[in-house]
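Residues and backbone
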Amino acid sequence: MTPPDHSKIINKTAKKVFGPYGIKQKGKSRIWLDDHGWYTTIIEFQPFSGRQGTTLNVGVNFNWQEQAYFSFDICYRQDVDFVEYTENEDHFSKEVEQLCEIALNKALEYIENLQNTHKAKAFILNHLYTSENIWGSYHKGTICGLTNDLIEQNHYYQKLLQENHPGEWLNELKEQVQLLMTNSDHKFKEKIVAIIKKQGF
């Protein structure tokens, strides 16, 4: 299926802005990925049903949880207006380029804050997650484990284990956490690295 004209303009503009930074398009979609191994910054030019144009979502997906999809674990929708395509290609390209610059600056900000696990620890612990007691506890417990803070790792993982949700996914997550908690420091890191290596979009 041939993408509509405005999608071609979005991807052409994004390639020009993101290409020098190694940020790659996901297939032929309007999603761009900045992969750093243990996390991936996701840039999405989100369409609206019945309208031609885009808004912008940017966020981080932590790759230390096995899943067949990406999630915006940190940040998400950007504070920008919907950019409408009115068949004026030059005007639309300029507006999309501004969105690309916003997305690029956000991606570079994540690189700065997540450049290593010790610097990332403060960034991750200070973030308030949408599902704070479940996914927030998982991410916080995991970064504590990776930085040898076993007391705090146990604190956050225990918080997660006390949560309830009707979905089977939480039971699976709890089983994974329980297995991680039984590992030694060395084995814990090996297990997290193994999970990260399985991931990929």
